[in-house]
Amino acid sequence: QVQLVESGGGLVQPGGSLRLSCAASIRFFSTYTMGWYRQCPGKRRELVAAVTRGGSTNYKDSVKDRFTISRDNAKNTVYLQMNSLKPEDTAVYYCNTGDLLLRGTPSFTWGQGTQVTVSS
After folding, report:
1. Which string of DSSP letters, residue by residue, matches 50-74?
2. At residue 37, does pLDDT exceed 80?
3. CB of 20 within 8 A of CB of 33?
4. Dihedral sign, CA of 106, 116, 53, 101?
């Protein structure tokens, strides 16, 4: 069963931008705090941004002031606008439930993720 489908990744040069989308087929989607996780090769998944039902957000320092998480509850969709991308942002990006403290609290089966590659 597909619950989370990420899209929008790709290859971009340093300083470029991408906008990721996550379509969530989750009952009562609007009640969950949602987040974007990323996983670099050889590292564990890390929650880098979270957004509550009402739109409160928080970010890891590594992406703060460059990434913006948002949601459209009517469309059951979460977005991640990524600007000023750096090579160290290269990772597979996933969405799932999350928390504003950025501890990482996934509730659902992971989707396939979307690859973001930042390289000249």
Report:
1. EE-TT--EEE-TTTTTTEEEEEEGG
2. yes
3. no
4. positive
Alpha-carbon span 109 to 2, nearest angstrom: 8
As a whole number, the mean pLDDT across the chain is 97
How far apart, in whole angstroms, are the C-alpha atoms of residue 77 and residue 32? 12
Give the phi and the psi of residue 8 in degrees, each rounded to 5.
Answer: 105, -5
Q: Which amino acid is at 45?
A: R
C-alpha to C-alpha distances, 108 to 47, 85, 101, nearest whole angstrom: 14, 28, 19
Give Cα separations from 63 to 1, 76, 95 (angstroms): 31, 24, 16
| pLDDT per residue as tens digits for the range 38-74 | 999 889 999 999 999 999 999 999 999 999 999 999 9
